[in-house]
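User: Hi! I'm working on a homework problem where we have to compare a predicted structure to a textbook description. Could you give me the structure for the chain below?
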Amino acid sequence: MGTKQQQTYPDPIPVELPTGFNAWLLDCVPAPGCKVCAANWKQLNAAKDAGDMTKAARHATEIRDHASGVH
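Assistant: Happy to help. Predicted structure tokens:
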């Protein structure tokens, strides 16, 4: 009888996220008149266009953090 070994390396097949997940992740609106939000908005769109959702999500978080007074 063979024993099943646990996989210890990443699966070469990329994970497919549910439809609409990126829209939810990037859901934000820059605060009017805020230069930091405007800069993050430009960078978010550039990252999204380049397919870098991790970087785009970071910029979306910065924009959403405006309401809490982070910048």
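For your comparison, note the following. The CA atoms of residues 3 and 9 lie 18 Å apart. The mean pLDDT is 87. Good luck with the assignment!
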